[in-house]
From TrEMBL:
One of its GO terms (biological process) is carboxylic acid catabolic process. This is Electron transfer flavoprotein subunit beta. Belongs to the ETF beta-subunit/FixA family. SMART domains: ETF.
Length: 248
């Protein structure tokens, strides 16, 4: 059984985001970038399925600039078998990403695609759902538990009323939530081995996909700064302050 795991290169989650002075976007100059945390969870889940003997090969695929090779190497260092890079400059929107992944799926014919539920740079939360629609596959989103069978996969997810479990016939799409697992760290020997693992390269043009953006960002701005709080002596003063603020 083969599993495909898309991984995205994003600004590291520990970095404080800075907006460009002209408001045209986020300043990426000299900013550390790494694998999207939700995608890291997806890679970890695929590897656990492989270690359980249910999966034979884990392939990581990334769509982005040449630097996305580093993101693929991170996935390979954790334990993925090989990588695929779709070289694309500029912003690639979720619809275009899903179309590119659909082409990769046609070539690789995986039994399961596991991907993060969203990327932390745009929080779109669309790619997995669009990919499932394009392929006509069943989907289990926001997975907190994944149980893979011979020809089906059970996906448990948290809902308002408790835990919902859906059973999907393979091939299928699964998107991961934070509670699914705790990703492992790459060891130094595995980081060295990852340098020798194969990474195939292709382009949107070669796959026959138009990635021209359909959306235009008018302005990017930082959230308003929070005002300092004040201490109150008693409940009466608290009510008075709330009335002054227009809350009551």
């Amino acid at each position: 059984m083969k599993v495909l795991v898309p991984v995205k290169r994003v600004v590291d989650h520990n970095v404080k985001i800075r907006v460009k002075p002209d408001g045209t976007g986020v300043d990426l100059a000299n900013v550390k970038q790494s694998i999207n945390p939700f995608d890291e969870i997806a890679v970890e889940e695929a590897l656990r399925l492989k270690e359980a003997g249910k999966v034979t090969e884990v392939i990581v695929v990334s769509i982005g600039p040449a630097q996305s090779t580093e993101t693929l190497r991170s996935g390979l260092a954790i334990g993925a078998d090989r990588g695929i890079l779709v070289k694309a400059e500029g912003k690639v929107e979720p619809l275009a990403v899903a179309k590119l992944l659909a082409k990769i799926v046609e070539q690789e014919k995986p039994d399961l695609v596991i991907l993060g539920k969203q990327a932390i740079d745009d929080d779109s939360n669309q790619t997995g759902q669009i990919l499932a629609a394009l392929l006509g596959w069943g989907q289990g989103t926001f997975a907190s538990k994944v149980e893979l069978g011979a020809d089906s996969v059970d996906v448990s997810r948290e809902v308002d009323g408790g835990i919902q479990t859906v059973s999907l016939k393979l091939p299928a799409i699964v998107t991961t939530d934070l509670r699914l697992n705790e990703p492992r760290y790459a060891s130094l020997p595995n980081i060295m081995k990852a340098k020798k693992k194969p990474i195939a390269e292709t382009t949107p043009e070669a796959l026959g996909v138009d990635v021209t953006p359909r959306l235009k960002v008018i302005k990017t701005s930082e959230p308003a700064q929070r005002k300092a709080g004040v201490k109150v002596a008693n409940a009466a003063e608290l009510v008075s302050k709330l009335k002054e603020a227009g809350v009551l």
